[in-house]
């Protein structure tokens, strides 16, 4: 709870700063990049959260990892976060910044989970369906879960449509368990 509150406050203040500086779009790209780095490299997040490693070492590594890849405002903000010893929240701050940016720009994220991935025609159909429900811009995030066997799960905000074969099999299992017919001996 404490981490999410800190991340939310830092992300909000950074959004306000980037709006004042006129670099909101660049900061969004930078924070998305930082978020992707943190999601793809768990060891990097553990490194940032380590209380044993000194702040100057963390700043040197952050500078090396993100050197030339971040806007100067974002770079200064990351340095400020490490100066305040809040680098352990960097991944959460980046995620929260992306979420707050999407909320500010009214962008919906549709998370589509399938067993094998989706092609362009299905992607367009999903975009059409989700845009029909809302006037917002839609971004599709794809996930693959082999346990679904087939079909799909679409999640937009707090709404979910589960049309997977695994769900249908589970429903059949429940139906067979509740079989009202008694087997005669």
Structure description:
This protein has 8 helices and 4 strands; from the N terminus they run ααααααβαβββα. α1 (2-21) crosses α6 (90-104). The chain has helices spanning 2-21, 24-40, 42-49, 55-66, 72-83, 90-104, 120-133, 165-177; strands at residues 107-114, 137-144, 152-156, 159-162. It is of the alpha+beta class. Helices cover 60% and strands 14% of the residues. Strands 2-1-3-4 form a 4-stranded mixed β-sheet, with helices on both faces. The mean pLDDT is 90. β1 (107-114), α7 (120-133) and β2 (137-144) form a beta-alpha-beta unit. It folds into 2 domains: 2-103, N-terminal domain of the delta subunit of the F1F0-ATP synthase (Peroxidase, domain 1, Orthogonal Bundle), CATH 1.10.520; 107-177, no CATH class.
The low-confidence parts are none
The average pLDDT score comes to 90
User: Which of globular, elongated, flat, extended, rod-shaped describes the shape?
Assistant: elongated
Number of domains: 2
| Largest β-sheet summary | 4 strands, mixed
What's the end-to-end separation, in Å? Answer: 58 Å
User: What is the tally of helical segments?
Assistant: 8
| SSE pattern, N- to C-terminal | HHHHHHEHEEEH
CATH class of the largest domain: Mainly Alpha
Provide the structure class: alpha+beta
Count of DSSP strands: 4
The value of Rg in angstroms is: 22 Å
Q: CATH topology of the largest domain, what is it called?
A: Peroxidase, domain 1
Task: Please name the fourth-level CATH homologous superfamily of the largest domain.
Answer: N-terminal domain of the delta subunit of the F1F0-ATP synthase
């Amino acid at each position: 709870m404490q981490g999410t509150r800190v991340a939310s406050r830092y992300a909000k203040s950074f959004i306000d700063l980037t709006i004042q500086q006129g670099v909101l779009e660049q900061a969004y790209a930078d924070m998305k990049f930082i978020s992707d780095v943190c999601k793809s490299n768990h060891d990097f997040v553990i490194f940032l959260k380590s209380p044993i490693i000194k702040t100057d070492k963390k700043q040197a590594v952050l500078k090396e990892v993100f050197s030339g890849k971040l806007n100067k405002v974002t770079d200064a903000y990351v340095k400020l976060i490490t100066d305040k010893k809040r680098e352990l929240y960097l991944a959460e701050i980046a995620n929260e910044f992306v979420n707050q940016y999407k909320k500010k720009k009214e962008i919906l994220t549709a998370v589509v989970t399938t067993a094998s991935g989706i092609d362009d025609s299905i992607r367009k159909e999903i975009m059409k369906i989700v845009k029909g429900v809302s006037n917002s811009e839609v971004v599709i995030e794809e996930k693959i879960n082999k346990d679904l066997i087939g079909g799909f799960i679409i999640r937009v905000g707090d709404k979910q449509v589960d049309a997977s074969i695994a769900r249908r099999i589970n429903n059949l299992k429940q139906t067979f368990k509740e079989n009202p017919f008694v087997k005669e001996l």
